[in-house]
Design a protein that fits this description.
By secondary structure, this protein is mainly α. The chain is built from five helices and no strands. The longest helix has 25 residues. The radius of gyration is 24 Å and the shape is elongated.
Amino acid sequence: MSRPPLTPVALVRRRGLWMVLFGLIHGVFFPSEIIGAHGIVAVAFAGWFARKHHKRHLAVCALVLLLQIVPVVLAMLWGPGGEVAASTAVGLGSRGTRGIGSSAVNAALVRDQRG
């Protein structure tokens, strides 16, 4: 007797549970383990992804990404040492060294700082 084939949702959930198990074992030896986290997401969202609401998926992913990026940018600009992060983004490091930006912008900023 053969078993009936698994539905895609059941297959993803079963594989997700195996990933959680391997993640627990792997996490004992490596604290930066992410296999278990991927398994939890697979188990939790297998049915949701199977429904194929692509626009809704994109909207949720964009919202999660936005919720991750905004606090980081705010912390870089207004947190401790934020003035260093803001000046580095413009092109000057904390000691006047070159950072990200075009050389023309850097030269103009250095001239303005020297007076």
